[in-house]
Amino acid sequence: MLQTSDLLRVSFRQVIRQHKRYLGVLLSIALGTAGFIVILTMGEEVKSNLNKDLDLLGGATIIKAFFEQGSTSESQMARPEWFHDVTVDAVDQIPGVNGTTLLTLAAGQTTQDDREVNIPMFGVDENFWTVMGIKATQGELFGAEAQEKRHRVVVLGELAAEKIFGRTDVVGERVMINSALYHIVGTLDPGNQIDRAKWAYVPLNTLRARMFNLLPRRLYIRCNTWDDVPLVAAALPQVIKQHQNANTLTVEVAWEPLKHIKRIVWWVEMFVYFSIVATLGLGGFGIWNGMMTAVKSRTREIGLKKAMGAEDWDIMIQFLSESTCLSLTAGILGVGLGYAGVLAAAHILHSSPPLDQFYVYGAASIAFALFIGIGAGFYPSLSAARMDVVAAIRYE
Asked: Where's it found, cell-wise (predicted)?
């Protein structure tokens, strides 16, 4: 019986000799393995980046919480509730929450060329842009400094700029809104939400300093992924109640768009996984077919080895070793391609590749490739081991 090292050396040499026959099998298993590694390794990262594109998702990962005006005369006379800072901090700590933003709405009016123009004003904090997925088309979006120091700056939606000035290139100019002069620092891209282009956005603290009765009664919460939305929505009322009165609290979730998105993603995932399984299955069938051909073409060799004293077990182990080496070679090639795919995906997503997960899935892929090799090569190896010596030697 050959030693293990000699057996592996002979098996790998046989795979190299027959590389043209096994090329399709190698590529099939390698590509299937690479796809398996990339999808599982980068799956969460891809999902996280998809959730950042709120226009694509229709705001499905945004939860809106607000306090409604009471319906009874008693509740209407009571002081309206608003979100306290300690409440917002607590909401930020809920597992699955990616970010929160406070905002309030006020009526705005300006005069341009002797005509009055009504512009809705939104007082927003520095987190509003990232939570809502808004980008600037010109200039910049104000940040924490403008919020903290109550700067009189404004970001105009493109339709609002067109309505006031008759054009959109207004960055750097000044506009008088509600008798206060604001510096225009940027215009924004409304995406698919056209209403955003009709508004003027100023720092929340700036707006509240001029309108003392203006309270932040709206809180928008963005979740990490669509899977976190139901959990966060369920936990939100209880967390808010722990820090303030929440009798008139309303929580809105876009359940229908969320279900639609999850349904689409589920089908896409099923299609991808089915494709990978089919590719690996074809690779396993290729190994089986290739080993059956190898057994048939080496029938006389098998007969001669048996005549020289080789046991059935020796013959079986040799062919099984060849199929395992073939699948192992394909698995190693697939891990290499998978590593390149992970690096490429991380570069496209502007993130760091999760190498810890890659190592885990890479090892699992090697183990699975070995399983395919052993499973696909077992019957051909058994057929070779059971050959009759005389019939095998006489085979032409």
From this structure: Cell membrane
**β-strand partners of 119:** 108
Query: What's the pTM?
Result: 0.65
Question: In terms of residue numbers, what domain contains 383?
Answer: 4-52+261-394
Report d(CA 275, CA 272) in Å as an integer: 5
- Burial category of 178 from C-beta neighbours within 10 Å (exposed 0-12, middle 13-18, buried 19 and up): middle
Sign of the four-CA dihedral 203, 207, 212, 214: negative
Q: Residue 201 in contact with residue 104, Cβ under 8 Å?
A: no
- C-alpha Rg value of the chain to the nearest Å: 33
Q: Rounded to an integer, what distance in angstroms lies between the CA atom of residue 64 and that of residue 227?
A: 17
Q: Are residues 21 and 105 in the same domain?
A: no
Q: Angle at the Cα of 333 (from 364 to 362), degrees rounded to 5?
A: 20
Angle between helices 4-17 and 19-52 (to 10 degrees): 90
> Are 221 and 62 in contact, with CB atoms under 8 Å apart?
yes
Same domain, yes or no: 196 and 170: yes
> Are 237 and 319 found together in one domain?
no
Task: Answer whether 216's CB lies under 8 Å from 204's CB.
Answer: yes
State how far the Cα of 146 lies from the Cα of 139, in Å rounded to an integer.
15
**Residue 175, SS3 per DSSP:** strand
The DSSP secondary-structure symbol of 351 reads S
The pair phi, psi for residue 187, each rounded to 5°, is: -120, 155
Contact between residue 65 and residue 251 where contact means Cβ atoms under 8 Å apart: yes
| Helices 85-92, 229-241: inter-axial angle, 10-degree rounding | 150
Do 121 and 108 form a contact (C-beta atoms < 8 A)?
A: yes
Tens digit of pLDDT at every position of the chain (396 positions): 556 666 667 677 777 776 677 777 778 888 888 887 887 787 766 666 666 555 555 577 889 999 876 544 444 445 678 899 899 999 999 999 989 999 988 888 887 777 788 888 999 999 998 888 888 889 999 999 999 999 999 999 888 888 888 888 899 999 898 888 999 999 987 666 677 888 999 999 998 888 777 888 899 999 888 888 999 999 999 999 999 888 889 999 888 878 877 787 788 778 777 777 777 777 778 778 777 877 787 788 778 877 887 788 878 888 888 888 888 888 888 899 989 988 888 887 677 788 888 888 888 888 888 888 888 888 888 888 888 777 767 765
Last residue within a domain, chosen from 253, 283, 303: 253
